[in-house]
Write a structure and sequence with these properties.
The chain is of the alpha/beta class. Helix content is about 45%, strand content about 15%.
């Protein structure tokens, strides 16, 4: 099949590459000329495990091509995926200007039947809006389908190639048949393709992300209460997770959620509710709790240093919002770093993938280290913000030797409390007993 993907962010690039991997001819469209040239040269512009192998293979095979011309993309594809940004407005609403702007161009350009697919995460009713905009100018038959993505950064390729489910929101039998044909190679193991109306498909994505964000936030609230009463959140988590009605996933406490999806989608659903005169009280609490949770380590740090951080230096391990990605959008590490800088502290940071993105944002406000251990010398304490695997079993002797004071503030609960006490560290984590030696 001939497919076009408009937008080459995380979703668009993974979508285009994985669809090419099953033999489709894919043209990806982006307005960024430098980015397009980089991709034509075989360079992946984002870090996503396993994407580079598929990307290079399909470029060599001629199945994956890139252009800055929307017209070229529209001429090529029978199915047009819109994987465009829907950034957060000041009031929390999703900004649909990119989606609707391209929809208007589509209406002026297409001359034969095509299926337009909303792949971006969009509010309920967006498919109707896209259809209305296209219909103003179009002279041929077309359909608009909602096909939300459920890709986890760090696992996006596997999630696309082996999806737990595929959601297709469509009221057109013709469009549904084409979408079923396109996705058939990805569900050979029997995982479902679920057909529903467009509005339900749009809401399914928001509902799923909002529920997961709520689950994380609830566990963080339990962790905070554990600290008040002397309970251990790890034991509580294990006790809860063995209940099949709850499950083990998304129960790990920490310094809040970040990234491109959860923060934006929770706020957008909350704002959509307000627009429709419905008050999502739970989501309002989730937003508030997560904002404070992202800096939950800062009061612990201030207390330890008697509320005087001026001139102190902190080593920070982890800058991305989660491991296996270079994405720093809404990353808790940035909130913590900015708080430390405001209090007069200095920061020496390391992340395996995200330092370049942070440097573009913060410039020379902090020091970027060549390795996790290079961030330690001269630091008054170590702060852990992202649970990269390389941080899980470090050389504690080296950490203790290089730090001015053997103290760790762990926002991801990577280490066992008793082990830290045995290693001679003061150790502060989330929802567990503090060790102050």
């Amino acid at each position: 099949m001939k497919i076009s993907v408009v937008g080459t962010g995380y979703v668009g690039l993974v979508t285009g590459t994985c669809l090419a991997e099953t033999g489709n001819e894919v043209v990806c469209v982006d307005i960024d000329e430098q980015k397009v040239q980089k991709m034509r040269d075989g360079k992946v512009p984002i870090y996503e495990p396993h994407l580079d192998v598929l990307f290079e293979r399909n470029i060599r095979a001629g199945r994956l091509k890139f252009t800055t011309s929307l017209e070229e993309g529209l001429e090529h594809g029978q199915i047009i995926f819109l994987a465009l940004p829907t950034p957060e407005d000041e009031d929390g609403a999703a900004d649909l200007s990119y989606v609707l702007g391209v929809a208007e161009e589509i209406g002026k350009s297409i001359t034969s039947y095509q299926v337009i697919v909303d792949k971006s995460t969009v509010p309920v009713g967006t498919a109707e809006k896209v259809k209305e905009v296209i219909a103003r100018n179009v002279q041929c038959e077309f359909d608009v389908v909602s096909n939300p993505e459920f890709l986890r950064e760090g696992f996006a390729v596997d999630d696309f190639l082996k999806p737990e489910r595929i959601i297709i929101g469509s009221s057109s039998e013709k469009a549904t048949e084409l979408m079923m044909k396109l996705y058939k190679p990805f569900v050979r193991s029997g995982n479902p393709i679920i057909i529903m109306d467009e509005k339900s498909a749009e809401l399914t994505k928001y509902a799923a992300n909002a529920f997961l964000a709520t689950k994380i936030t609830f566990m963080n609230e339990i962790a905070n209460y554990c600290e008040k009463v002397g309970a251990d959140v790890d034991q509580v988590r294990r006790g809860m997770g063995t209940d099949s009605r709850i499950g083990k996933r998304f129960l790990f406490p920490g310094i809040g959620y970040g990234g491109s999806c959860f923060p934006k989608d929770v706020k957008a659903l909350h704002k959509s509710g307000k627009d429709d005169h419905y008050d999502f009280k739970i989501l309002e609490s989730v937003i508030q709790v997560n904002a404070s949770q992202k800096i939950a380590l800062v009061p612990k740090i201030k207390n330890y240093f008697n509320h005087d951080l001026k001139g102190k230096t902190f080593a920070v391990w982890g800058l991305a919002f989660k491991p296996e990605t270079d994405d720093i959008r809404e990353a808790p590490a940035l909130d913590i770093i900015n708080n430390l800088l405001d209090l007069g502290a200095k920061v020496q940071a390391f992340d395996p993938e995200a330092m370049q993105n942070v440097q573009r944002k913060l410039g020379n406000k902090i020091v970027f280290s060549k390795s996790m251990y290079d961030a330690l010398p001269g630091a008054d304490a170590l702060i852990i913000c992202t649970e990269w695997s390389i941080f899980r079993t470090p050389d504690f002797n080296r950490i203790r030797t290089d730090l001015k004071i053997p103290v760790i503030f762990d926002g991801r609960n990577l280490y066992d409390i008793q082990d830290m006490e045995n290693e001679g560290f003061s150790y502060f984590s989330i929802g567990r007993k503090d060790i102050k030696l």
